[in-house]
Amino acid sequence: MNLNLPTVVGTEPKCRHCRSKLTLTLVDLGLSPVANDYVDPADCAKAEPFYPLKVLVCRNCRLVQTLDLLAADKIFRADYAYFSSNSSSWLNHAQTYVEDVTRRFGLAAASRHVEIASNDGYLLQYSMAKGIKCLGIEPCESVALAGLAKGIDTRIEFFGEAYSHKLVSEGWTADLITGNNVLAHVPDINDFVSGVRILLAPEGVATFEVQHLLRLMQLHEFDTIYHEHFSYLSLIAGQRIFAAAGLRVFDVELLKTHGGSIRFFVCHAQSNHAQTSRVAQVLADERAYGLDDDATYVAWSESVKATKRDLLELLIELKCDGKKVVGYGAPAKAVTLLNYCGIGSDFLDFTVDRAPSKQGRYLPGVRIPIFPPEAIFEAKPDFVLILPWNLKDEIKDQMSAIKSWGGQFIVPGPKAFIEN
């Protein structure tokens, strides 16, 4: 798998799928640090690298993609700090998924389930509990070791054609392949999808959850754009990418996760899995919005600028009134949002996060300190800015006690508002 795909300054970038020249810009978010490179206290006074965060659209295949500037092995490092099991709602989502697919596709103890980007075993633990033979593939050592500690066979590797051939030579052929929030994270998407075709059993099923480009644009979710995401997918683009590898999208589901996701159900092109009516409906919805129209992408960046202005106007008004504001959460999307908007510790005294791996460190770029959630109850702020807005309801439940001193929540977009 090619992990080093830099764009040489001065040359015209090309689509990572079809290699067409990229001449259409979706949005330019300026310079931003690597989202998950949390800063240790000892390094807080040191400089850190910032890279252009620019998103382009292929006029040919309609794959939306970030400008290639960083290799994947510079982003998904051994000390990667995101642990999926820290979110109870995400664990519930994973458990429901396993129940649904095992029932729908008749998976049993003799079946084989491979998850690509298995993180800390958050999902495979539920398949393993059913007696299904499981294998996790995870390139980041820190989270992979947590999966191994749960008894899940986990390989610390990047996935692609070469590694897929290796697994097949070991006797692995998967009845179910799961890839949650990974398809957008691979720089060589063709190599990755070809690897899926090699590993998938003749009548096997692969499912991939990605943030849905349609919802990202409809809700102005620009903060989900960061260097870790190489691609942003629609069904229009997804069908073309899978078809080029000999695979077929036979069903889709629209999900609420991550502000609006799409789950692709994929099989071999000649498989017996019948295509559902949902595929045609989602394609129709995407085309009705204008995902096949250049003008839609050109206009969208103006809504991003409006979201930035709305949030800054609200925070400036609150700070001028002497209000104390802190953040909740330290997700990657917070790094994009805060750096693009120029929101540092002059607006947010600190933020909190449940992940011990982030506590005691600083957000990249803006250098806002990250504390345990209990810090909010000690500081008693007037407002809590919810940075992982996709978990808004879960966070409001966890932090409901702030109402005892009159505390309120701020949701940053698509138009910033205060919520009790």
Automatic annotation (TrEMBL):
Under SUPFAM superfamilies, the record lists: S-adenosyl-L-methionine-dependent methyltransferases
Q: Where is the Methyltransferase putative zinc binding domain?
A: 15-76
What Pfam families does the record tag this protein with? Answer: Methyltransf_13, Methyltransf_14, Methyltransf_23
InterPro entries xrefs: Methyltransf_Zn-bd_dom_put, Methyltransf_Zn-bd_dom_put_sf, MeTrfase_14, SAM-dependent_MTases_sf
Q: Which domain of life is it from?
A: Bacteria
Q: Which residues form the C-methyltransferase domain?
A: 257-414
Q: Which PANTHER family match?
A: BLL5978 PROTEIN (PTHR43861:SF5), TRANS-ACONITATE 2-METHYLTRANSFERASE-RELATED (PTHR43861)
Name under which the protein is recorded: SAM-dependent methyltransferase
The top of its lineage is: Bacteria, Pseudomonadati, Pseudomonadota, Alphaproteobacteria, Hyphomicrobiales
